[in-house]
Amino acid sequence: MPTPVTLTPGPLTGEDVVDIARRDAEVVIDPSAVEAMTASREVIDGLAEDTTPHYGVSTGIGALATKQIPHDLRSQLQRSLIRSHAASSGTHVDREVVRALMVNRLATMCTGRTGVRPVVAETYAAILNAGITPAIGEYGSLGCSGDLAPLSHCAMVLMGEGDVLDGNSTAPAAEALAAAGIEPVELREKEGLALINGTDGMLGMLLMAIEDLRRLYACADIAAALTIEALIGTDAVFAEDLHALRPQPGQVDSATNMRILLADSPLIEEKKAGEHRFTRVQDAYSMRCAPQVHGAGRSTISHAASVAEFELASAIDNPVVTSDGRVESNGNFHGAPVGYVLDFLAVAAADAASISERRTDRMLDKARSHGLNPFLADDPGVDSGHMIAQYTQAGIVSEMKRFAVPASADSIPSSAMQEDHVSMGWSAGLKLRRAVDGLQRVIAIEILTAGRALDMRDGGIASSKSSAPLTAVRRKIRESVEGPGTDRYLAPEIEALRLLVASGDLVEAAGAELGFPLK
After folding, report:
1. Of residues 55, 217, 285, 489, which has the active-site annotation?
2. Can you tell me whether residue 224 is helix, strand or coil?
3. What is the C-alpha to C-alpha distance for residues 113 and 313, in angstroms, rounded to an integer?
4. What CA–CA distance (Å, rounded) separates 488 from 200?
5. Helices 468-480 and 249-262 meet at what angle, rounded to 10?
6. Is residue 388 pLDDT above 60, yes or no?
7. Beta strands of 18-71 (E only): which ranges?
8. Which residue from 476, 432, 431, 428 is spatially nearest to 451, judged by alpha carbons?
9. 90 backbone φψ class: left, alpha, beta (φ>0; ψ -120 to 50)
10. In the structure, what pLDDT confidence band is assigned to residue 225 with cuts at 50, 70 and 90?
11. Residue 55 known to be catalytic
C-alpha cells in the first residue's frame, strides 16, 4: 500500500495524484489546510449578507448570472446547480480517471481559495478513502468553466445523490455513503460552484499519461534494440559523439539506452567481423532514426510534465478568494494549457507507434529480413506466422493517427454565448488514453515478433546471441510466451506481451541486468 498523501494549502506532486488515483493511497487533510479553508469561508459568509450581488454566492450561474437569488433560496441554488450540471452521457469513464479528478479538486479546496467549509473537503476525502467512485459518462465536459458535468457527478455523491460504480454496474450513492458511515453534505453559498470549476479531470488524465508514456518510451527503446538485433543491424549510429552533434535531450537519452542495450551483442559483433553474407552501409530509417523519434516523444513528455507541474500549483475556481480577502471572477478554469499538451502527447504516441509498426513489418518481409522465414512462419504456406499480428498493429496505428487530430483546435459556444470559447481538453484527455493503450499494444507486438525472430536466428535463450540485457528481456518474454513453432492461438500471446509492456517488467528486467535503470 502506498504512503498516505497529506493535503496542505501547497501543491501536490503528480506522483501523489497517481498514487491516490491508481493505487488507492489514503488522503489526509493537514490542519493547515483546515485553517486556510476556515479563513476563506469567513469571507464568503460575510458576502452572504451583502446586498451587492456576488457571482455564485447570491446570483445565478453562467448566462443566468444577472439573476439575484434571495437568501432563503441560496442552498437550493447550490443543489439545483449540481443536479442540473450532472448531465453526462455515454460509457462510464475509468475509476482511476474519476479518482484523479476528485483528488485534484480536493487539493484545490485545501488551498483555501475556493471558500468551501472544511466539512466539504473532509467528506470528499472520506469518499475517496472509502473507495466510493461516482459514475460519470464520457460526454459532458467542454474543458472550460471546469470539467463541469464530471465534477457535478462527484458533487452529487457528496450530497448523497446520484450513482456510484459497483463492479460492472452502478448503485445509489446514498446506499454507498450509508454503508461507509459517511454523512451527506448540504451545500451552502458558493460551495456547489467551487466543486465544479476546474481542469481537474483533464489534469488527472495528463498525469497518468505522463507516467505511462515514460515507461512506454523506455520499452520502445528495448523494442527497437531487439529488432535491430533480429535484423542484424548496426549500433554504430547510436554513438555518443554522433548524438552530441544534435543534443536534443530526449534523443540523447534514447540513444544512450539503445547504445547500452546493444553493447557487446554477439549478433552485431558478428556482423562487424563480416560473418554475414550481406553488407549494409545504413539501416532503414525506422531502425536508424529510432532515437530521434523516441527522443522527440520524450521531450514532448518533459514539456507536458512542466505544464502539469504549473497546473498542480494552481488554485482554479471562479470566483476565487484571493489572499487579501477579495472574491474575484477570472478565467483560470479555461483548459487550453492542459488541452494543448494532451493533444501534443497523442501526436507523439502516434508517431512512436508508426515507427514501431514499420520495424515489425521489416522482420516479416522475406525481402528485407535478411534470411528469416516469410512472416516468421515455422512452415511458410502451411503456417502464417505473425502476418496478421502486423495487421493488428496497422489497424491500431491508423486509429492512433485519428486520435492525433487535436481536440483543442475545436470550440463550440455554450451557455447562450456567455461561454463562447472552450478548450475541449476533456476530449483531448480521453483520446490520449486510447492512444496510450494503442501504443502499448503496438510495442507489445513488435517485441513479441522480435523475440520470435531472434529465437529463429540464434536457436533460443539457451544459445542466445543477444546482448546481456536483451537476453534478460527475452528470458522474461519466454516466461509468458512459448518460443517459435507451428501456428497457435496468437491473441493471448499479444495480450501477455501487452501486460509485460504495461507493467514495466521488461524495462525492469533490462535494468536489473545492467545494474542501473534505463533512461
Report:
1. 55
2. helix
3. 12
4. 45
5. 80
6. yes
7. 27-29
8. 476
9. left
10. very high
11. yes
